[in-house]
Design brief:
The protein has about 300 residues and is mainly α. It has a domain of about 200 residues: MetI-like fold, CATH 1.10.3720. It contains 12 helices and 2 strands.
């Protein structure tokens, strides 16, 4: 029975990969694999029997990567702080309620995040923050290019901030659990040697939990890469791309959601090719996460010897 269940999962996965790749293959043959991934020219065609458009997905790949990177950069420090507070500082009663509250964030539907971000969080918090960041960072050499105007309210930055809130429960839950597994003897030994609370948290707990933190971060990144509705509502829906984080763009999943319903047959194949690309990126991230966690754990084990 267990073998049958396992085989059924592999069968479904194989069918998914096979059918989507079959439908996407004509697009890769028409556009060229390299051109599909590196060109930013996307012009949908309307033919039923041949390809007439231009299909370069670089703008959508770029938007996916940038918004996800912003999300991880914002969520990871907050997740570490929340996990340390829950495990080391918070009173027991507050610890339980705070843990439940963080986990509750994961149960909120994506469309609710999108609506909340669009109607309240964007005009109240994100837009004023973007104006301040632009004013302060634009004159800074090199890095200031990431914050130059014009400022689009719906942008990579806006999508990334809301994505950070969405992946926060994932990273926090895993980080909190791995931190709780740090042996008490290590903590007591550090205190016995005169370490401060800050030193114990940073040099003992976080160091011992590092493989789990990396794994949780990669899982959060995987969720951010595949998020659809909230990103589609907040990233801007533009087929262009720009270096500035305040630029309006689009993501792989968001572009599929926004255009699939009215797409002509040839464009449907191109959107399926985008889906295959997103699947490949997600698989690469998850495999890299497992290899990285394994490698870090192995190095830590060798160091302990």
């Amino acid at each position: 029975m267990a073998v049958s269940a396992g085989m059924s999962v592999l069968l479904v996965l194989g069918l998914m990969i096979g059918t989507t790749t079959r439908d996407a293959l004509p697009v890769f043959q028409y556009q060229g694999v390299w051109s599909f991934f590196t060109s930013d020219e996307w012009r949908a065609g309307f033919s039923r029997s041949e390809f007439t458009g231009e299909y370069g997905a670089f703008s959508f790949i770029y938007g996916t990567v940038v918004s996800s990177a912003i999300a991880v950069a914002l969520a990871l420090p907050l997740a570490l702080a929340v996990s340390l507070y829950i495990n080391r500082i918070a009173p027991k009663r507050l610890k339980v309620s705070l843990s439940y509250t963080v986990e509750l964030l994961a149960a909120i539907p994506s469309v609710v995040y999108g609506l909340w971000g669009l109607l309240w969080f964007l005009p109240t918090v994100i837009r004023p923050t973007m104006d301040v960041i632009n004013l302060v960072m634009e004159p800074v050499p090199v890095i200031g290019r990431l914050f130059v105007g014009p400022i689009y309210s719906l942008s990579y930055f806006t999508a990334g901030v809301v994505l950070a809130i969405m992946i926060l429960p994932i990273i926090t839950a895993i980080t909190r659990e791995v931190m709780a597994q740090v042996p008490r003897d290590q903590v007591d030994a550090a205190y016995g040697m005169g370490a401060t609370d800050f030193e114990v948290m940073t040099k003992v707990i976080m160091k011992s939990s590092f493989p789990g933190i990396v794994g949780g971060t990669m899982l959060g990144l995987g969720r951010a890469l595949g998020e659809t509705i909230a990103v589609a509502m907040l990233i801007g829906g533009s087929q262009r791309w720009g270096l500035s984080l305040f630029f309006a763009g689009d993501s792989l999943a968001g572009h599929i959601a926004n255009t699939f319903q009215d797409a002509a047959p040839e464009t449907v194949n191109a959107l399926i090719a985008i889906g295959v690309s997103l699947f490949v990126v997600t698989v690469i991230v998850n495999v890299a996460a497992r290899l990285l966690v394994w490698r870090i754990g192995r190095v830590a084990g060798d160091a302990a010897l």
